[in-house]
Amino acid sequence: MMGGPQEPAGTGQIARSRVRLADLPAIGASYRRALLGALPGSGSRRAGRPPAVELCVDGVGVDRARLAAYDRVCGFRLTDRLPATFPHVMGFPLALRLMTAPDFPIPLTGVVHVGNRITVHRPVDAAETLDFSAYATNLRPHERGRQIDMVLIGAVDGEEVWRGVSTYLSREHTSDAGERHDRGERPPAPPASAFWRVGRRVGPAYAQVSGDHNPIHTSRLGARLFGFRRPIAHGMWSKARCLAALEPRLPDAYTVDVAFKLPLPLPGTVAFGATPAGDFALRDVRGRPHLLGTLRERGRGPSPRLL
Predict the structure, then answer these.
(1) CB–CB of 113/168 below 8 Å?
(2) Which whole number is the average pLDDT over 270-296?
(3) Which spans in 104-185 are helix H?
(4) Of the four listed, 128, 141, 174, 266, which is most buried by Cβ atoms within 10 Å?
(5) What is the rounded distance in angstroms from the CA atom of residue 233 to the CA atom of residue 199?
């Protein structure tokens, strides 16, 4: 398994208070809270550790029209089985509510999504309702600032069926070297099996189906404010598009772990490739990685055969 988001030993012993919400929080309200908290004189006081709270919401049903639109935008077949990445967008408002709290240890503005690990314990059908819970863990130094993991869990009738762990990097000046990038020799890239032209509309289209309207993905001006000449594709769209390419070969239970590398400017052309061992990559035409991933079947040996 590639190095990525994971909970440290003993994390399960941390005492967290469970706060059960009646409904999923509104994403727009969470983003407004984050922007207000970033203003000078807002009074926000960042804590030095992850919040000792777990947010929960029960009985979240699947909007089939949204699922169909998501499948089209990401390249999945139209079926009642949820793509592995779809529960992430369903439960994302819960995680975002935690991340935009005034005392959350890192500010949302400028944060970078650097990794995501999803575990599918069994297929989830669109007719099922999911109970979601979310919490933050593993705040740690990094050579470019600090990282934190956001854990999102989906359960059906008390049984965990899906788990996602997203790692976010807050770029900060720090004297603590912390975690370093692997500067060793990179593994050889999987040979390209497909070239995809990713149009400019992917940014707004994914924002519409995911609910995440970050202007860095949808607006040239918004992208320039963060140092990009053009809007960039959402990392979770890139992951979903890779899984869509592997969809006919996916097992019923697996873990898929990705590291987000270089941004993917829109529009752009990318090369996708995968190995029989379960490694896959999305690269630009010069061979530089946008995304590196591994997929491992659960309970049936070290890896599925993808090719």
Answers:
(1) yes
(2) 96
(3) none
(4) 266
(5) 10
Query: pLDDT band at residue 188, thresholds of 50, 70 and 90?
Result: low
- Quote the CA–CA distance of 233 and 168 in Å, as a whole number: 17
For residue 12, the 8-state DSSP code is: G
How far is the C-alpha of 153 from the C-alpha of 133, rounded, in Å?
A: 5
What single-letter amino acid sits at 56? C
Distance CA 163, CA 154 (A): 6
How many Å from the N-terminal Cα to the C-terminal Cα in the chain? 18
Q: What is the mean pLDDT of the chain?
A: 87
Helix (H) or strand (E) holding 242, with range, is helix 235-246
- Is residue 116 within 8 A of residue 183, CB to CB? The reply is no
Name the packing angle between helices 202-210 and 64-74 (round to 10°): 150
With a CB cutoff of 8 Å and minimum separation 6, the contacts of 134 are 54, 55, 56, 91, 94, 95, 97, 98, 150, 151, 152, 153
| Alpha helix segments (H runs only) across 55-181 | 64-74, 86-99
Helix H or strand E segment including 206: helix 202-210
The DSSP string of 31-72 is HHHHHHHHSTT------SS--SEEEEEEEE---HHHHHHHHH
